[in-house]
Amino acid sequence: MSRYVENMQRHVHSRHMVEQDMDWLKEFRDDPDYPGPESEPVRVWRSRDYQAMLYIDRDSGMKRLTITRVQIDRYTGEYREGISWDALQQIKNETIGEDAWAVECYPPERYVQNVANMRHLWILDTEPRFGWKQLTGHTTEPEHDDNEPPAYHGGIHQIIIGGES
């Protein structure tokens, strides 16, 4: 018997993210501890392995994609841990889009809120000044003249602290 059981509510058979309706929120709205509609996700997706919820902060307008595995540890009652970088990238691509930039945030210890096995991707409105920006060939690029090399925005440059780069 597996240690993990799937949360069968709103079960999806696909390996890819499928957008869900928001009707399931109705069951929480009558709870006296319910924080209100400003805390609700604006969109929800699910695959057979993951669930992703998109939130938009009322004050800042920042978008946050919150991701959990759908399996629950039968001993602890918590969502299963372990979401790989590859899984996060695929979920971001299938929900927000392949051209979107997203980041994870690792705050100072005094601001850490580690209350569940969730990962949060903050969706950026514009391309950041940091990040790998060398084309990899993983996606199709717009057509360009074969006599001209493709335009690369940024590149790989190692910085050695206390020395030259």
From TrEMBL:
Residues 80-125 form the DUF7694 domain. Pfam families: DUF7694. Residues 135-155 are annotated as: Disordered. InterPro entries: DUF7694. This is DUF7694 domain-containing protein.
